[in-house]
Amino acid sequence: MKRTKEDIVADWLPRYTGKSLDSFGEFILLTNFNKYVRMFAEMFGVQVEGENANMISATANNITIINFGMGSPNAALIMDMLSAIHPQAVLFLGKCGGLRDKNKVGDFILPIAAIRGEGTSDDYFPSEVPALPAFQLQRTTSSAIRDFAYDYWTGTVYTTNRRVWEHDLEFCDYLRKTRAQAVDMETATLFVVGFHNSIPTGALLLVSDMPLQKDGIKTAAGDKITTATYAEDHLKIGIKSLTSLQTGSRTVKHLRFD
Predict the structure, then answer these.
(1) In terms of pTM, does the model score above 0.85?
(2) Cβ burial, residue 53 (10 Å; 0-12/13-18/19+)
(3) 20 to 30 A Cα–Cα from 187, which one of 68, 122, 179, 246?
(4) What gap in Å lies between CA 16 and CA 39, rounded to an integer?
């Protein structure tokens, strides 16, 4: 008998995370970093799960945070697998490179769209289909950012499948021409595959480096400082955004995907 997509993802999500389907929260935070998962677990006094699996996670207050890894293929994988539990909302807390001179390390970027430069999303929709977040989810996140007394930038983020590109001057010039606010490796894929799976998806990005500026390329030392300074508030804003949706002060349930 031919296996359906539903059969596959229902088997794979527990295999990749070490969690049973009924143990996930209805609201999902996604990250690329183990530290975010461990901070979440410490905040709520819960265990980190999946230490021997591919993707560690922690769950509290109907929210599950998952480190799905890095890059657009992993982004597509987690959004496909999350279709097994039909989450109410998914919010990505990622880092990005700032592309505008007015940006600086530590800025928050709330993308209103993403440019599909990664290729992975082409397997889900034609390339001319825009990568857009769930508007109400971004609106809720905007309110949470301001509640923490931060400002933020908005605009587009360019998503690439290349991790090492900073030496490529031609690509750097191309990025400038796109007028994108930031560059990362996951956001466009998450938006497109989330839409494909009828999952409301948003993102809040933290500028961790300024790769088009002299001496602006990310280093291990610089990233450590950025994480120590801003990661906790980044996570708290994400938690508050999803908590607001749960309490009914904001909703994404009215969204339609047909």
Answers:
(1) yes
(2) middle
(3) 246
(4) 21
What are the tokens at 39?
């901070």
- The whole-number average pLDDT for the span 158-183 is 94
Sequence-ordered strand ranges (E) for 161-243: 182-184, 201-209
The two structure tokens encoding residue 89: 């909302």
Contact at 8 Å (CB) between 119 and 161? yes
E strand or H helix at 27: strand 27-31
Q: Which amino acid is at 14?
A: P
Task: Locate 188 and state its tokens.
Answer: 């466009």
C-alpha to C-alpha distance for 245 and 137, rounded to whole angstroms: 8
DSSP one-letter code for 127: T
Q: Using one digit for the tens of pLDDT, what is the confidence trace for 181-233?
A: 999 999 999 999 999 999 999 999 999 999 998 887 888 888 889 899 999 99
